[in-house]
Amino acid sequence: MPWLAPSPAHGFSEETVYVGSSGKDVTEMQGRLKFLGFYTGPVDGTFSWRTYNGLRNFQYEFGIPIDGILGPKTKLKLWEATKNWRPGAPETAPAKTETATAPKKLPKTNVNFSQNELKMMANAVYGESRGEPYVGQVAVAAVILNRVKSPSFPNSPSAVIFEPGAFTAVSDGQIWLTPNETAVKAVQDALNGWDPTGGALYYFNPDTATSAWIWSRPQIKKIGKHIFCN
Questions:
Q1: Alpha carbon distance 215, 223 (integer Å)
Q2: pTM of full prediction above 0.90
């Protein structure tokens, strides 16, 4: 497809940039993502997994296909969202808006879970959200990991999943369905640090939820059919 040049003054080249790349385009991306609050790491020109997760969060919030790749459409949207940014400018975000607010970051979760723990997470994601968009499936996995990190919940995925009354898929037996590759990938993306929920500990379907307690929780955002909250 043709290069969608935002203006002669933009700092990006025509190159498509991936994890593992380095150079001027990566530095430009990191600076702009940091300006918006989606990236908190060093502006060092190295396309790390931390950079990847920040880019995916930006793509999600701005309605771009979520692939973690810095291509023409993402470059154009990033340039349009940060027209006031300049190299070397103070690393502060503009006044917060719904689209420019970065999700809350959590400490990186222990990725050395056993294969059984990973399988139970995939089972839960599949049982709870297989009809949801991909980002919604990652969000369910992220909620499980957020609970593991919280002192208010058990400290392993399986213990979180099987806590009494915690997940509908356990109650209705769908936890034992065989997960597909999408659910497995959603778990891996969550383990790599992608949290579309902004740190949520709970979620519910507003079309079916009857609990006054869950409706009283502070809501963060809606993804697919689920409302995520704390």
A1: 16
A2: no
